[in-house]
Amino acid sequence: MTTLEMGSVPRLRRGVRLSYDQTRETHVLLFPEGVLVPNPTAAAVLSLCDGVEDVAAIASALRERYAGVREEEILDVLSRLGDRRIVEWT
Predict the structure, then answer these.
(1) Domain containing 68 — which CATH number?
(2) Radius of gyration over every alpha carbon of the chain, rounded to an integer in angstroms
(3) 90 CB contacts (<8 Å, ≥6 apart)?
(4) Ramachandran region of residue 35, left (φ > 0), alpha (ψ -120 to 50) or beta?
(5) What is the mean pLDDT of residues 53-65?
(6) Which of 35, 38, 43, 58 pairs with 73 at a CA distance of 20 to 30 A?
């Protein structure tokens, strides 16, 4: 297991795609093992996992959109998604 920190750079694993389902009006995460409907917080984090920006930059971008963004919560979301093999770190 990788130790995550603010300098970690997440990206969606190969074969994983975040889409928006117009019919259900929600994000859908498609990956080889199945489908996941992330909550709005996880979808916002995932949308910024581009393999270029680190967690600190992701937190900064989310703070521009939402109040009360905490780095610990972002790291927790990314850790759980990493455990499910949805994100990886570059």
Answers:
(1) 1.10.10.1150
(2) 12
(3) 9, 10, 11, 51
(4) beta
(5) 95
(6) 35
